[in-house]
TrEMBL record:
Residues 351-373 are annotated as: Disordered. It comes from Caulobacter vibrioides (Caulobacter crescentus). The chain crosses the membrane at residues 130-151, 178-198, 325-346. This is Peptidase. Pfam families: PepSY_TM.
Amino acid sequence: MRLLRLLHRWTGGLIGLLLALLGLSGALLVHEDAFLRATVPHAADAQRQDTATLAAMAAKVFATEDRPRSIVLATERLGLNKLSYNTEEKAAYADQDGAVIQAWTSNWDRPEAWLFDFHHHLFNGDAGEIVGGALGLAGLAFVLTGLILWWPTRRVFHLRVWPRTMTRAGIMHHHRDLGALLAPLLILSLATGAAMNLKWFSEALRAPFSSTATMAKASTPPKIKGGPLAKDLDWIKVVSQAKARFPGAEVRIITLPAKAGGLIQIRMRQQAEWLPNGRSMVWFDPTTGAMVASRDAQSLPLGSRLANLDYPLHAAKVGGLPYRLVMTVSGLALTLLGALSVVTFWGNPSGRPRRASAAMTRSGPDVDRQYSR
């Protein structure tokens, strides 16, 4: 137990601040749509999914000289389309008729963009994504070892939002009780975050349900060569075919070919899908607008369907306001636990009790004696 306590303390002391920042940024990102509705024109507009509107918008946006690579369409909670360009950080918000409302060329120009870049990539692209996933796994170990350390002290459990006293013993008492209480939420947040960032971890979690080879084969795009993109492409024909393939589904993302010979791709979200942009796909020839292939997300292997739950659960894209508040609590709890672990560790890295008698007098002998070891 002593070794476990030492490992837990050092883990918290070394990565606690990063976990705290990830928790805080995650809690803020849960409310990104509300922030945009309050600050960006047309963000509160009602969602429009009729074929005529979508086709006219796509024709207008993709006809511009500096056309985007893809369009993420408005949702029920956010009335803006997001345009993404070939340049990594260049993007724009447009209304549902295709008129650009705000554009930027750097993530630092938009608070929600740089906040997401930090939370998902730690400002370091793919390398930061891997580090973030590793932090998620370390956080999981932090929670599990914390539960083991808390168990012998469970009889003195107290529910407090903030430590009763800011002594080392008082903070440790609060830290363990709060961590134990919110452990299920923290495990959910950390596990789904790590699974999204680390492919091998995601595959390991789904291995009991579907093999890696089966999931990879199911997600492989069609090997069909398309023609050059037509200047006068019939977008009504394209959108109509997509809707006919998946009746009742939302059109979520329209993507142009990345290179010569590629296909137009439309992502759809069926009612049963939790993923906000769905995983049902339809592909079209860029010259004729003819549908050449499709993939139903509901027919994917079980492991793939379980993997598609990671993002909506992690980012609170299901469950409405109640679940968004739950995940906000999870993020803020991680912030508090991580920050206070750093304070207690660097205030006394050795872990040896200092002025134990004074601390016991202030906080109570029975409780603080257990948390000063």
